[in-house]
User: Fold this.
Amino acid sequence: MSDPVVGPVPVGQILGAEIEERGWTQADFAAVLGRPTQFVSEIITGKKEITRESAAQIGAALGTTPEYWLNLQDAYLLDEQATDAPSRQTQQAGSHIHADQARDHSGPHRRGARGRTQRTLRTQRHRRRTRIRPSGPAQQ
Assistant:
C-alpha cells in the first residue's frame, strides 16, 4: 500500500507547532518578536501571510533562515493555486456570459466609444460647444 500524497502544510500550522514544541504561548512568541499577539495569531490561523520582514524576525527568533519561512509559504500558496486552477476553469467553462454582458449598461456611467463613459462624452461635447471663439474678423 502506498503512502497518501500530502500537499504542503500551511506555514501557520508549522509555526504553531514550532512554538508549541518550545513550550511557548503565542503571547510569549509575540514578545520575542516585538509584535502584538494578534500578529502571531493571524499568521498561525492563516489570516495573514508571512512577509519578508516577518520572515526575518521569525527566523531570528527560532534560529532558522528567513528563506525557510518564505519557501514554506510559497510552496503552500503554489500548491493551493494549482489545486484551485482546475476548479476555476470548470466554473468559467459553464459561464457563457461575457464580462461586458454581465455589467449594467444603464445610467450615466455607461461605456461608449473608446471606453469612455457617456457622462465624459457629454462633458466633452459641452466644452467644445461652449469654447470661447476668438473675436474679430472671421478667418477663412
